[in-house]
Amino acid sequence: MGFTIAIDGPAASGKGTISRQLAEFYGYAHLDTGLLYRAVGKKMLDGVEPIEAAHSLRAEDLDGDALRTPAVAQAASKVAVIPEVRQALLDFQRAFARRSGGAVLDGRDIGTVICPDADVKLFVTASPEVRAGRRHAELVERGMDVDYDTVLSDVRERDARDMGRADAPLRPAEDALQIDTSEMTIEDAVSAARAAIDAKR
Ligand code: CDP
Ligand code: CDP
């Protein structure tokens, strides 16, 4: 079994960017598990029953800008509350984590539920205002007409739903290293993560 890195945190904390850079640096495979929930959320918006959607997910459902919208993000956090949806996505994530060449997975429950035995666990945070600012900038960059206050209330609503659900709520694993990126550059956050990883490899 290869080295496994589990990275969790709330929306726009920087976990995806950090995960991609770590995967590239160490030559590991990367899975953005949020895409699985976004794909199920998108199918729900298209009229498919969420549990059925989770069971019939295919690779081609996982890419495309259609998953990167605020409406799909909200739908993702709604389907993520359903235990049968989470269960349907479990085996794929665990198999990915066990890849022999090493793997980085990022999401909400990687260190707590998907990979409780991960070699390194990180919990990436930032204040809601900083995260909303980052997500707002990204959406504007992609040509979407959204205002900061709407993005902030979306982020807060999703945080509350993700932390408040009974099954696999968003919370740091006891053995996770917490990295608050509110006032950190991506480079600094990646350096902090690399120091923790290099100490375990
Ligand atoms: O994956 P997650 O939703 O946690 O966040 P992300 O997609 O990695 O980051 C959201 C945005 O914040 C991206 O545009 C990053 O470039 C930016 N970011 C930043 O400005 N400073 C950081 N320390 C981390 C991320
Ligand atoms: O990129 P961002 O952090 O905004 O969201 P995401 O990682 O794409 O996740 C979208 C939604 O999927 C989250 O708000 C969670 O409700 C759900 N999710 C989850 O429940 N468990 C995961 N491992 C990943 C995402």
Automatic annotation (TrEMBL):
Keywords: ATP-binding, Cytoplasm, Kinase, Nucleotide-binding, Transferase
Domain Cytidylate kinase: from-to ranges: 5-50, 65-193
EC numbers for this chain: 2.7.4.25
Residues at which ATP binds: 9-17
Catalysis performed (reactions): CMP + ATP = CDP + ADP; dCMP + ATP = dCDP + ADP
Location in or out of the cell: Cytoplasm
Protein's UniProt keywords contain ATP-binding: yes
One Gene Ontology term of the molecular function aspect: kinase activity
Annotated Pfam families: Cytidylate_kin
Entry coiled-coil feature ranges: none
Family indicated by similarity: Belongs to the cytidylate kinase family. Type 1 subfamily.
Classification via HAMAP family: Cytidyl_kinase_type1
Entry protein name: Cytidylate kinase
Gene assigned in the entry: cmk
